[in-house]
Design brief:
Layout (H helix, E strand, L loop, with lengths): L21 H6 L4 H32 L6 E5 L7 E4 L11 E2 L3 H4 L5 H12 L7 H8 L12 H10 L30 H7 E5 L4 H10 L3 E6 L5 E5 L9 E2 L9 E5 L2 H10 L9 E5 L1 H15 L6 E11 L2 E11 L3
Parallel strand pairs: 3-11, 4-10
Antiparallel strand pairs: 1-2, 1-4, 5-6, 5-9, 6-7, 8-9, 10-11
Helix pairs in contact: 4-5, 8-9
Length: 334
């Protein structure tokens, strides 16, 4: 007869047990609690990253120079317009350059285009011979002349006259020149200098541009609508300034610069209080300013004027006043 073995029942544990499953079924049946914890962590991490990115961008923006203010360039060889950066003030020192110009110091113009330009120029330079007209067309300052109305072209043509060599009558009120070449063969005349020189005005707006022109006692001529064939003279630069009609008897300095950029001319007109957008404007500088620039041009590289193809000046602001200096020069290569 076998005896049945009785096993001892397990003793009850005294350790605390987790809550019954009904707690999680009631409060987090789809793992909402764990997902919410993960989502909260992700949001906080993204927030910290965003703050770091914003701070780094702000620091980078402080190190980056401001958006460049467009600089006004009045150039006799092509439309001026707003181009280079700057806005006056700052370090007055500017990099200077000295480059050689190719092709015997003349603008490279295809022969067919040169012939067309000579024919067009002869219409307002009738007393000049072909060689003299070709020299003007190939000069660095000719491009800006083409857009002018007839009245301004006639006035500018007088500045291309002067005293030359020979007995034949040339252009200009007092000039004689060989075969009508006039003063174009004389590098020291105002007309030759206007074709050779260019000025860079670093400006913030039209009013700033006018302020710089006024500092050099420039007179401004702006064509009038609707056909832009009549001109208005501004002998003093103030705002507002209605100016006066430019009459044939009115005399102007022979040293001049043409700004044929429409946007630039419009800003100048608006700064004068005119409600027009002219295609260009002309600035005429007094003789004392011309003489000062001529001396600076000569001392820049100690060259004679007939050895220079083009010279670039830049207007700079020094302690609230405006000054001008030579920044580059292209000599004639024989």
């Amino acid at each position: 007869m076998s005896t049945a073995t009785r096993t001892k029942p397990p003793e009850k544990s005294t350790e605390p047990l987790p809550p019954e499953a009904k707690f999680w079924r009631k409060y987090s049946p789809n793992r909402e609690l764990s997902l919410a914890a993960v989502a909260s962590g992700v949001v906080h991490v993204l927030g910290v990253v965003l703050v770091i990115v914003v701070i780094s961008r702000l620091m980078k923006q402080e190190e980056t120079p401001p958006v460049p203010i467009r600089g006004m360039v009045v150039k006799p060889d092509r439309p001026g317009g707003l181009g280079s950066t700057g806005g006056g003030g700052g370090d007055p020192m500017t990099e200077v350059k000295d480059d050689l110009v190719p092709q015997n110091s003349q603008r490279a113009i295809p022969e067919a285009e040169l012939k067309r330009e000579v024919v067009a120029a002869k219409a307002w330079l009738p007393e000049m011979n072909k060689e003299a007209v070709e020299k003007i067309v190939q000069s660095p300052g000719y491009e800006s002349f083409k857009e002018l109305n007839d009245d301004l072209k006639k006035r500018l043509a007088k500045g291309l006259g002067g005293t030359g060599k020979g007995n034949d009558t040339g252009m200009g009120d007092t000039g004689t020149g060989k075969g009508g070449s006039g003063g174009i063969n004389d590098a020291t005349t105002s007309g030759s200098r206007s074709l050779r020189w260019q000025i860079v005005f670093k400006t913030a707006n039209g009013a700033d541009y006018l302020k710089q022109l006024a500092a050099f006692n420039a007179k401004i001529v702006i064509p009038e609508p609707p056909d832009w064939k009549q001109n208005r003279l501004f002998e003093t630069i103030t705002f507002p300034n209605p100016g006066k009609p430019l009459l044939s008897a009115d005399s102007l300095p022979e040293m001049r610069f043409i700004d044929a950029d429409k946007g630039s001319a419009a800003r100048i007109a608006r700064a004068l209080g005119l409600n027009i957008d002219p295609p260009y404007f002309a600035a005429f500088f007094p003789k004392d300013m011309e003489n000062k620039m001529a001396a600076m041009e000569k001392s820049f590289r100690n060259r004679k004027e007939d050895q220079i193809y083009s010279t670039t000046f830049q207007v700079l602001e020094r302690n609230g006043a405006y000054d001008i200096q030579v920044t580059s020069q292209v000599p004639v290569r024989k």
